[in-house]
Structure formats: structure tokens, C-alpha cells
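pasting input
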Amino acid sequence: MNQIEVITVFLEEGYQISPNAVELICCHCDPHSLLDRILKNMDPSVLVVDVEHINEHNIQENNEVPEKESLSTSHQPIPKIVAPMFSPLNCSQSDNPVDVLLDITDNSTCVGEYMEFVQFFRNRYSRLSEMIRGRLNSRPIESLNKYRNKNGGRREGMDKDMNEISIIGMISDIKNTSNGHKMIELEDTTGSISVLVRMADKELFELASRFVLDEVVGITGALTNDGKLLIAKKITIPDLPNTLGERKRSYGKAVLTSDVHIGSSTFLEEEWYRFIDFLKGDTDNEAMANLSKEVRYLVVAGDLVDGVGIYPGQEMELKIQDVYGQYKKAAEYFSEIPKHITVIISPGNHDAVRQAEPQPMLPENIRADFSENVLFVGNPSVVDLDGVKLMIYHGRSIDDLVASIPGVSYQEPTKAMVEMMKRRHLSPIYGSRVSIAPEKQDHFVIGQVPDILHCGHVHTVGVEWYKNVLLVNSGTWQSQTEFQKRVNVVPTPAQVPVVDLSTLKTTILKFAE
Ligand code: D5M
Ligand code: FE
Ligand code: ZN
């Protein structure tokens, strides 16, 4: 049974199905009977069938098919890269388990050759288009060639067919026409076509005004007589499913922070020490002391230090001029964090790793100075904190999203994160401010939906839910720099989101006076 057949069966029964679930069914030794069982027992309120629904049925109903473990381990829907860990906390005795599910560290293969870029974009296209394919009966762009008539006349018998054509493509160009419409160039692996979104189609036009280059979208529309232009009637984006089924929850708290910028003269040391005192439980405030006891994880989403040579004139604002000296100081600060708290550090654009993303974890000579309760991961990465899936991304792409999407600003960073979720991609625009290394897999695709997306970079705190995902931007420990004054970045320093791992409710603690 192939993927299209599986999707079609579910569509006919009124369900959408996630790409992971399709893959799981196709890999099964007896997909037909598995599919019958799933449909027989499916809760009609489910909109999108996912892996959880399939596993449930195997456990409850079926003794002949492989058990849940063998299904989910031998046919992992998305390859998981488990990075090497550097702390004893990864072993089962630990109270705060951390599983690294996605991390480029030690898995980078790219050297920058042409074919690697082709492979990188194919991987992006195939994974994102698969998310849309379940909801759209699409066809390859190449198949529209038969309608392309040199004389511009319409071919007999094709009228009806040409009125409702769906394609899924990556956006390679966006233009405004002289009449104010949007002209979009869409590409798939077989060809390209121009798509017109008319100004009069207000809802569509509003959606198309938020399109960015290199994102993957589905368009349904009517083909013009000469077969050269598709007039859009409907836009389908990858997006998150409306329901995600039962999510596993844990207990205790995860403290999320980022952009510490140690080494900068604008690093707020006094406020930082107040924060460390909180983590130590060293406070007269009873509520804060109780909260402190519950902290299990501290996650840093990049820019641990200020680095050197990152922006023009930075040396004038550095207290510690040597980047290794900055990390030594960081290790000193972090050594004061109680050892029962597991610290996870991911790098950002100020850190001493390659600038091209995905970035690996900090190098061994820097890691060596940190205590054993500190784990290092790459950027982006996905970690499982005792059952809660946390996607960590420093957030450099927010600069691109602010510049390209109307209404997305530095003051409300989670709005940019909503745009990432809708596109199921952390950094959709290629070749702008984020330099992206063409790895075999596009690490920015949001494959499995996390419970939490944690970003930093913009130095403003924000918390928002988008569908079932908690979006957190964790602010900074740096006051406004001269450079930020010039580019009008107004930070909200020394504010720390604390997430309850059982409810995902978030409290923002303020350490500035
Ligand atoms: O980024 C801190 C903030 O400064 C973040 O909001 C982006 C903004 N920023 C950084 N570089 C630029 C440029 N070149 N133009 C405009 N705004 C920028 P950080 O990574 O901590 O320096
Ligand atoms: Fe920063
Ligand atoms: Zn940054």
C-alpha cells in the first residue's frame, strides 16, 4: 500500500492524516488490516490522525501485529539523531532525564558543494509538502505542460479539469503587479509556474501578503487558457494540526533564558546574581523560595557570551575582551547554580561556534570548564525533558521575519514564532541574514510538533500559545547597547519565564529593581 492510497482512504472517511502516521502505516507488515482497525476505532472528533492514534489501537485491539515498541522503534517516522551526551544526567538514575532528539553536533556532513544545496532543498520540500499533501489532491507542476498551448487557445475537453488544479511548491519569487495583485512563482521538483493572487480576493490576498521566499505552500486554482498562469482560489499552508491528542506531561519547572551576553559591559551582573540567588533558594520571599525548590531544568537558548567582532564597535562595549575569558567567567557564574538543576546550553550568533546554522554545541575546550550538571546541545535542537518536548532555537531568523512579514515586530517576538509554526519551519527565508549550511536534512523543519518552542535573540520577553504549542522568547541579561540604540531594539532585560512542566503555565520572574 503506498502513501497516496493511505491518505486517500483517510480523506474519504473524513480524516486528515499526518505524514508520520502515513509512514507508520505504510511500513507495517499488514497495512490494510491495520488501517481497517484504526478506522473502526477512530474517535470521530479527531481531525488529524497522528501516530498516537495508531499506537493506541495496536495496544488495545490487536495481538497479531507487532507491539507498540516494535512499531515505534523499528519504524521511526522521523529519523532521530541522538547526540552524544556529556553528563551523567543522561543515565537513568538521574532525576532530570534529558534525551536529545535532534542536534547537528557530530552529524554535520556539508562542505558547501552544489549538489548539497539541491539535496537540502529537496529535503525541505519533500517534508513540508508531505504535511500539505494529506489535505490537498495535488499534482506535479510538470503535469500542467499538457495544457500549455503554443497558440494560446484552450484545448477541447479540458475546461472542467483546468478550473480546479492543486499544486504544492516552494516560493521562488514574489512580485506586485502594476495593478496591485501578487504574482508568485512556485517551484516543485518537476517544474515551475506563476500564480496570481488577485487583490479583490481579500482573504487570499492577505495570506499571500505574508508569503516569504522559500516557504512551501499549496495552491488550488484555475489555469488560464494558455495554461501558463494559475489564478489562486485557495491557499493551504503546512501549519500545526488543530488537535494533537494526549501530550505527556512531567512535574516541576523549567526556567528558560537566553542572551546572557557575559563579557559585555552592558551585562547586568547584579540582576544576574539575584537570579542565581533565586535558583539557590536564597530569598526571604516564601513564594519564590517554594518556586525555586521546584526548578529542575535551566535552558539557555544562545548568546551565552557577547563574543568578539560580532558588530561594529563592539570592542568599545566589552568588559572581557578575550572570548575564552568570557566563557571562563560564564563557567564561574554557572558553577554557582545548584547541582540538582540540569542546565542545557545551546549556542547563538554571539557564541564561539560556526556562524552557519545549524550550529553544533560549544567546543570541548570551552565545555571542559563547566560543571557536570551542564549539558551542551546545538542550535537548533530538540530535547525531551522527562516527557516534555522542547525545541530550542536561538532565533536569528526572527530578524528576517520582522523584515518580511507585515505586523511582525521585535516588541512581540512570539508573533514571529507563530509564523515559524504556521510554516512548520524555523528559518524559511534562505540567503538573507541567517546563513544556512546545506546539511542532508533541513534541521529547521518542525517535523514532530514540540510542546514548547523556546527562542531568544531579540532580547524581548514574550509568551504565547499557538494551537497546542507554548511559544516562549526568553529575553536577555544585557541592557541596551549602542548598536541596539541605532537599530531601535528596546530590550526587556532580567525577566525570566518559568514553565510548569505539568501544565505548561508560565510565570515571568523579574529580577530588575
Ligand atoms: O541581537 C540582539 C538584537 O539586535 C536582536 O533584536 C536583533 C538585533 N540585531 C542584531 N543584529 C542586527 C542588525 N544587523 N540589524 C538590525 N538589528 C539587529 P544579538 O544577536 O544579541 O546581537
Ligand atoms: Fe543576543
Ligand atoms: Zn542573538
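fyi The radius of gyration is 25 Å.
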